[in-house]
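SAMPLE LOG
Freezer: B-3
Tube label: C17
Construct: single chain, 373 aa
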Amino acid sequence: MQDKKIALVHDHLNQMGGAEKVLLEFHHIFPKSPIYSLIYNKNKVPLFKDCKIITSLLQKTPGSFNFFRWFLTFMPSAWESFDFSKYDIVLSSTSALAKGIITPSKSLHFCYCHTPTRYLWSDTHEYVNSLRIPGLMKRILILELKKLRAWDFSAAQRVDYFIANSHFVAERIRKYYRRNAHVIYPPVNVHKCYSNPQRKKYYIVVSRIRPYKKVDLIVRAFNQLKLPIKIIGGGEYLDALKRMAKPNIQFLGEISDAEKYKYLSQAKAFIHPQEEDFGISAVEALASGCPVIAYGSGGVLETIENQKTGLFFEEQKWESLAEAVLDFDKFDFNHDFIKDSASRFSVQRFKDEIKGFIEDKLNQKKLPLEYEN
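STRUCTURE (predicted):
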């Protein structure tokens, strides 16, 4: 691919999470490729400071940084306004609308899809109900989302090849977009994680504090259990959860990766109450030799072995989580076995699989076409 012009695409660079870590590895694979994004807040994503980043008109639109979600109706046209005519390969990273870019017929668009756009498909009503807006505005928003859903489906048909971050997401791509997807698990810095044989008695959570992450279930369960737990992460519902929590629950906020790995290495168990498309934080816990107590749905079914590297609970309710925590001590978990189970999600494996998949499709494109007489 050395002679190919390649562009990278990402929804928006205004936070640092699992999707942004995937993009960072794309940059490491293709360091000379520019990154296209709707907006770029350099203070929020300092790891991209040395990248060439091309933004849309929303970058200079007043209010776009602080009220980004309110520009939803303008995003399709913003994505379609980018010019990719000089590129042979476009690699997009998206859980929202970046798949809607328009690429020339000569190029190949590979879309690494973290999930079909949640607020348009699986979580529409939950998303609308979570907004603190009057009922009339919610009804208007539902109509706008309906229009955007039609655009999103049409945009998905422009992609040449979908790559899903789990089999769970591949099934959702098939359901909502009627497209097949090749599965490549995301990169996890398993080599940076380590296991401490001297385990402490606290449980741990690493998560953004948002409604769909279900951290409130953890607070409710541990308020009753009165067991020590540390919650790492920030978000718009952090203050509300702090007011709800009892003293045994400690909020550490947003901390460095080094501090996070230290806490994971010493924790008794990692709590994962949400349905994730993959669940990078849960795999980081495994790489730290830390067993995971998880809601048995989504990507964790592909990363965790029940009663070997973790424990599943069946209902997404605090009572079901609390019961699993109480059952946890009945099992003898091998921390070395747990750590070894995470090795298949390494960064190098991810790089090799991404390059291999793209090169394979490029070679297929070079093959002469055969026509029936």
